[in-house]
């Protein structure tokens, strides 16, 4: 498979996708026809226009899958697909409703380049169980695309030692997940992404990632770290720690 999984599409001080634009342009085929999946936000037309404004100057043709009558059919004429960020529950519910969940799995496994950002990156994992989002709608299942066998936590935030907030940190929430599921979780900080090419996977971008596994301390993974072993790591959901 050919995946570019961004933690975020917007970065402080940058335009939309600007912080990763060179990587995005290198990832997409020349003069690509890009199918954009806008369902994580409510205003599909405005969202699609934003992606067009960012990518069409680079020679990439952007078409929202909602703009025709057949979202699945839009994949047939595309050279790549981009699943945008927003609310992961709303996005997954729409993928089920439109038939795109199964269609995306099939096309991407057959070689269609897949780019995700935030919620779109969540979709590449097996389930929604490590998303940060509020469940504003209820999808038929938490099962996502399963393009990678491990979990991803986009927008990963480190604990603030100066904070007086007593709620759970992101790390504590991920460790709670690991108490119930024996599945690695890759925390992608803002400005970082995961690149998957076939059986190779690498952390890239401006900041290190953080890898959580059951029974071991979390590990820092600098940009350039090879994490290909995650593609074959066993995953056991609903496996409480004893």
Short characterization:
The protein has helices at 21-27, 44-55, 71-76, 88-98, 100-109, 119-124, 170-180; strands at residues 2-6, 33-37, 61-64, 80-83, 114-117, 151-154, 185-188, 192-197, 200-205, 209-212, 219-221. The protein is an alpha/beta fold. The termini are far apart.
Q: Major β-sheet, in short? A: 7 strands, mixed
Number of contiguous helices: 7
Task: Report the principal-axis shape.
Answer: globular
User: Which whole number gives the mean pLDDT?
Assistant: 94
Note the beta-strand portion. 15-25%
Alpha-beta classification: alpha/beta
Flag low-confidence runs. Answer: none
Alpha carbon gyration radius: 17 Å
Reading the helices and strands in chain order gives EHEHEHEHHEHEHEEEEE
Strand runs, count = 11
Largest beta sheet: strand ordering? 3-2-4-5-1-8-9
Helix content: 25-40%
* Span between termini: 35 Å
* Oligomeric category: single chain
Could you characterize the architecture of this molecule?
The chain has 242 residues and is α/β, with parallel strands linked by helices. Helix content is 26%, strand content 20%. It has seven helices and eleven strands. It has helices at residues 21-27, 44-55, 71-76, 88-98, 100-109, 119-124, 170-180, and strands spanning 2-6, 33-37, 61-64, 80-83, 114-117, 151-154, 185-188, 192-197, 200-205, 209-212, 219-221. A seven-stranded mixed β-sheet has the order 3-2-4-5-1-8-9.
């Amino acid at each position: 498979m050919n995946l570019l999984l961004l933690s975020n599409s917007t970065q402080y001080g940058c335009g939309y996708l600007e912080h990763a634009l060179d990587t995005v342009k290198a990832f997409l085929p020349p003069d690509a026809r890009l199918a954009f999946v806008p369902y994580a936000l409510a205003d599909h037309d405005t969202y699609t226009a934003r992606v067009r404004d960012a990518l069409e100057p680079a020679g990439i043709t952007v078409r929202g899958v909602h703009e025709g009558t057949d979202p699945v059919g839009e994949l047939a004429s595309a050279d790549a697909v981009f699943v945008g960020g927003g609310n992961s529950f709303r996005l997954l519910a729409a993928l089920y409703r439109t038939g795109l969940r199964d269609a995306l799995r099939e096309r991407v496994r057959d070689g269609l380049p897949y780019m995700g950002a935030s919620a779109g990156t969540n979709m590449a994992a097996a389930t929604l169980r490590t998303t940060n989002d509020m469940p504003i709608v209820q999808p038929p299942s938490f099962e996502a695309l399963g393009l990678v066998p491990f979990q991803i936590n986009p927008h990963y935030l480190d604990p603030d030692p100066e904070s007086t907030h007593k709620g759970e940190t992101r790390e504590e929430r991920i460790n709670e997940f690991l108490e119930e599921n024996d599945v690695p979780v890759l925390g992608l900080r803002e400005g970082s992404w995961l690149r998957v090419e076939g059986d190779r996977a690498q952390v890239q971008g401006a900041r290190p990632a953080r890898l959580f596994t059951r029974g071991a301390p979390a590990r820092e993974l600098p940009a350039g770290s090879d994490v290909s072993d995650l593609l074959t790591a066993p995953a056991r959901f609903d496996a409480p720690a004893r």
